[in-house]
Amino acid sequence: MGLGKTIQSIAFLQEVHGAGVRGPFLVIAPLSTITNWEREFGTWTSLNTIVYHGSLASRQMIQQYEMYCKDTKGRLIPGAYKFDALITTFEMILSDCPELREIEWRCVVIDEAHRLKNRHCKLLDSLKHMDLEHKVLLTGTPLQNTVEELFSLLHFLEPTQFPSEAEFLKDFGDLKTEEQVQKLQALLKPMMLRRLKEDVEKNLAPKQETIIEVELTNAQKRLYRAILERNFAYLARGAGHGNVPNLLNTMMELRKCCNHPYLINGAEEQIVAELRESLPTPAPPDLALQALVRSAGKLVLLDKLLPRLRAGGHKVLVFSQMVRCLDILEDYLIQKRRPDSDRFVFLLCTRAGGLGINLTAADTCIIFDSDWNPQNDLQAQARCHRIGQSKAVKVYRLITRNSYEREMFDKASLKLGLDKAVLQSM
Q: What CATH architecture applies to the domain 5-164?
């Protein structure tokens, strides 16, 4: 996470190419990072690199003019390619492109390789049908939830050395003893190059995380209880016909309520109407903004915190699991923005915006709601706490007190113990 995996991998491909291994090389990366990969290839290597992505028509153009060598009669020359390295996305691999399966790849580099953690995922199945001589996996979080996920990566790399999941789990499934941990570490050491931030940058600015517990507002408490009791009559107030909240996934509805009640269908109209009745007439012009802020404990806190951060000259990243929650935060920020103010807040979805991008201009990170997988939150924090960051980084994690969200965070935090026991002690 910000330790130079991209440049190190590119330098490796340049080195083996200079030693006579002519490729072709394949790089598979998230869509949001392929522009960065292309730029770094151009900066650090002399390899002829193409990006293979886009519509069918654009890919056909790439095949026609950039991929294959032809003889004097315009016929394709088998095994002769114009490019040295090809950058593509996971989506292209999943779309089952036959033109990529036909190529004998000397080496594949897979960025954010923890996407392969599910042994039965379609991505792994697609990769197994490709001719990949050597494999390099890049990830800052190889061990996220269980040892089964680690086996999936190892089996992909060395299927002959790790043929049986049952045998692997028999040896390492529970990791109850120090002997088991040491044996697993001995297996991993020859296959893994692991770096920590302090190994690469001795003077990296520190990171401090503060957990802030917020209270549910009265509006949130009423909705929270109604969701727990499955009180459809209460939840339907303010909701249009056919717009009653679906409580099939009660836990998700509780998470929505903890973030902002407007995420519950029909709640906005009900809350605005109640606030209008409680205020003297005529209603103030900022009634909608008052209702937006007052109805959510996290937004009440954010409304006090952001002005102080801006006055201190900080730039802020706000991460949330829910795109609709980011939409609500965007509405709030638009209404609060002064005409002469500069943008200092960047809203990102934790999983989409937490991979492969460098945002060291920011020095403050707000985790609006936590992920079930704590590694995703660490990935998000690493967007600003990485090599090149000259300021101390402050992380604020917002958690609703005495709620499902608090219990979820406590359980998710236990997952970090597996990573700490196996990898951090290597």
A: 3-Layer(aba) Sandwich (3.40)
